[in-house]
Amino acid sequence: MKQLLLAGVALSVLGTSAVAQDLLFAPGEGDFNWASYEAFAEANDFTGQNVTIAGPWLSPEADRFDNLLAYFMAATGAEAVYTGSDSFEQQIVIDAEAGSAPNIAVFPQPGLASVMAGNGLLTPLGDEMSAWVNENYAAGQSWVDLGTYSDADGADQFYGFFFNVNVKSLVWYVPENFEDAGYDVPETMEELLELSEQIVADGETPWCIGLGSGAATGWPATDWVEDIMLRTQTPDVYDGWVSNEIPFNDPRVVNAIETFGVFARNDDWVQGGAGTVATTDFRDSPTGLFASPPGCYMHRQASFIPAFFPDGTEVGEDADFFYFPSFAGEDLGNPVLGGGTLMAITDMNDATMAFMEFLQTPFAHEVMMAQGGFLTPHSGVNLDTYSSGVEAGQGEILLNATTFRFDASDLMPGAIGAGTFWTGMVDYAGGADAEAVATAIQESWDALD
Prior knowledge:
This protein has about 450 residues and is of the alpha/beta class. The chain has 17 helices and 13 strands. The termini are far apart.
């Protein structure tokens, strides 16, 4: 039995080709959960076995993942290789059908994984791993549901282990602006609406909203509607909407669209007036936060939006975020909208299953957290290992989530989620009736059958 000995910063891994200096973080140092890594290494020896992994990550994401693979190889003696491709989703289907798939595929969202599972091209991870996710991931049942698909016989099986997710349920603001005006960060949706009204009463504008995105114009509004659906309806209603079991023009969906309109179709609430919402480019829309005096005080957008803040903006100081809050009166917990990548087995061997078990260790997540560009719902991780306070704050939002759901438009048929849903939201922002817009989207979905 190969043994791993941790003493101070020293690591001795017997029977493997990897040595401590090959590893990004010196063993024993830092805030990592080295005990979970040590226990995994002591229990697993797969010297001479190979694990191949394919996915959509290119540099720098691929480089960070390679750094994680180095620890797996040091612990087990196995060889592990990741190959990234910008045409991964097409290639994995071709390779799996030809019997030449990698051991593990990294899917950017559940849709393709579900299709491949139904075609018998994935290997179930089993009830034990499903139970582990339910117990150890915040909003665990959500992650089990998102990784469970029908097999070739129509039976539900757990296939997808989520590893690296992102958060969309964020509101961005400038702390100095809030401090100067005497505003507090709202903790409920009721308080957020009250704050918006207070800002108007003070002669200012609460929101910057822009839906422009070239051929993809309208998509920012779909995120608003999805977040509102999760805050006004139970998760099963959201899921039924995504699958079209609940029609788009159901009153509950129409209500979510109209609630978006409370923010976006009120001239007093939006910088430039409601008439500018559909034509303002989403990349330009947060600039009002940084004007003097402020053009707006809040901007709802996903974690990527700081890339479009003015040069030199320090997130966490010059700009910050808070959780897009839930309605206290709805008693629906703390839902989070986002996305993420999932690991699924496309060619099983013993070392491959061991790698999936490696991903259960807090250490595997912490190594990725420390490199940046990675968020996790793993409840056993040390938030101090995140590379920045910004990511730690978003990680904390994930850990406080009671429900997590994927972006609905990404899971709908492309003609809807990346088509009539987008254009319908532009029409609605321009003044069209919400029920009429929703009915037109539903009719376009019906026409696909």
